[in-house]
Amino acid sequence: MTAAAPSDPPEKPKIAAVLLAAGSGTRFGGTVAKQYRTLGATTVLRHAAAALGAMPIQPVGDAEAITAALAGLAHLPPVAGGATRQASVRAGLEALAEAAPDIVLIHDGARPFVPAGTVEALLAALRDHAGAIPALPVTDTLKRGAAGRITETVPREGLFRAQTPQAFRFATILDLHRRAPAGATDDAALLEAAGLAVALTPGDERNIKITVPEDLARMERLLALTETRTGTGFDVHAFAAGRPLVLCGITIPHDQGLAGHSDADVGIHALCDAIYGALAEGDIGRHFPPSEAAWKDADSARFLRHAAARIAARGARLVNADITLICERPKIGPHAAAMQERLAALLETTTERISVKATTTERLGFTGRGEGIAAQAAVSIELPRS
């Protein structure tokens, strides 16, 4: 009996996100909307965008304010929001209609911290449901009141507090928004009204929506409770003719480049692995599989931007990064300062936190024979305590 040939693995779904930043934040007060308030070293909105990771992000709101807040982060051109949240969500969905992703995440720009595993749990739930939302069970006793007096105690069993991002099959949620009457305050409610099942995935108390100044202060306190982690990375690539030599984001004049599926930037690859290691999020191959054609000859700067986004998504901060390039040639010293500046820009930090240096193996081994270049990296990252 002849064994059946293995089937091709299913294609990964295309995922995009709508990031809502159109609210005026009247309950927060002041002249600056809550999503543009400073949290740590950046804005609430930038934290929220970075928390979504490496996927097309469609911001909705004031284009000038969004562009300033997200400078340096990859995102689609902002579209104007509507008078209501429902209208703003639809505007974002319509902007994504031509690209037609399989799945869309809808996220509040005032939620700066999405705990690790939240998005993965939502995507897993979409295998069997048209929608999925993170939610926390209500634990407090609920009272209904009027005129300053209790009128009823509301049973809390089976009640949940909804959070974002919420995940939906794109075609379904777009169709429902196009047909829905005004008045919906929650996207999942549209699926419920249509009789479609919406899954509940675990929420997290740290997934705070900034609504009043006390929320921002609470988020600041959470960011202040940190622990320091260290990650290391190592990578190696052989020399190859006919390719540019890219090291730490800089193209170096040389008679050979490095062989690899992407641009083979050995320095950035080692640095990404060190960052993912400190975050306990695998390695670069997990996030950017070399078997995928999308990453063929890719600029490794994209990988480092993703690693930087994962730092921000975890509410973390890069303390420092130290990269050592190991080779006999070319000489790294004349280019080290430019590499340092490039890496700092990609990581959105200062050059004082980035070190790039080089060494040789005294002509021993494959690097000593001039057959390739190796790199090792170490990083320290401050993360909120879990």
How does this structure look, described?
This protein is of the alpha+beta class and 386 residues long. It folds into 2 domains: 15-224, Spore Coat Polysaccharide Biosynthesis Protein SpsA, Chain A (Alpha-Beta Complex), CATH 3.90.550.10; 226-384, 2-Layer Sandwich (60s Ribosomal Protein L30, Chain: A), CATH 3.30.1330. Helices cover 29% and strands 27% of the residues. Strands 1, 4, 5, 6, 9, 10 and 11 form a 7-stranded mixed sheet that branches. Strands 15-12-18-16-17 form a 5-stranded mixed sheet. Helix 1 (44-51) crosses helix 10 (301-313), helix 3 (85-96) packs across helix 5 (170-179) and helix 8 (266-278) packs parallel to helix 10 (301-313). It is elongated, with a radius of gyration of 24 Å.
List the helices and strands and how they pair.
Blueprint: E1 15-21, E2 38-39, E3 42-43, H1 44-51, E4 57-61, H2 63-69, H3 85-96, E5 103-108, H4 118-125, E6 131-137, E7 142-146, E8 149-154, E9 160-162, E10 166-169, H5 170-179, H6 187-193, E11 198-202, H7 213-224, E12 226-240, E13 245-247, E14 250-252, E15 257-258, H8 266-278, H9 284-287, H10 301-313, E16 317-326, H11 333-346, E17 354-359, H12 365-368, E18 372-384
Parallel strand pairs: 1-4, 1-5, 6-11, 16-17
Antiparallel strand pairs: 2-3, 5-10, 6-9, 6-10, 7-8, 12-15, 12-18, 13-14, 16-18
